[in-house]
Amino acid sequence: MMNDEKENLRERTKMFARRIVRLYCALPKSDAAAQILGKQALRSGTSIGANYREAYRARSKAEFISKIGDCLKEADETLYWQELLLDENFVSARKLEPLMKENDELLAILTTISKRAKGLE
Predict the structure, then answer these.
(1) CA-closest candidate to residue 108, choices 62, 61, 76, 66
(2) How far apart are alpha carbons 30 and 28 in whole angstroms?
(3) The model scores a pTM over 0.90
(4) Using only C-alpha atoms, what is the Rg of the chain?
(5) Domain 3-117 has what CATH class?
(6) Are 32 and 58 in contact, with CB atoms under 8 Å apart?
(7) What is the mean pLDDT of residues 70-93?
(8) What is the percent of the chain where pLDDT is above 90?
(9) CA distances (Å), 77 to each of 71, 101, 119, in order?
């Protein structure tokens, strides 16, 4: 992966984390279920970028592949929590769909990185 692409994804995962933080802050404070689901999304959604940064500091290819796998796991989990927030009507589809679309795109990019690193593509 080129340095520009690496930096772009680094910034993109950070912006995604910031959007997840704003999503969490917008959830109703008085609804326990919304807060529980929101905290789960907050934890997994902000860890994608942190794991991505760790992947590029990996000391070996195996460690890199493992960290990218962690990114994928957290991105998929974040999508799950977003789906639940949507299903339970804690957030409107209009507000959440752009964030879910970005989540899908990050999953696709990270999947490609993982496959390339494993020599599957």
Answers:
(1) 76
(2) 5
(3) yes
(4) 15
(5) mainly alpha
(6) no
(7) 97
(8) 91
(9) 10, 14, 25
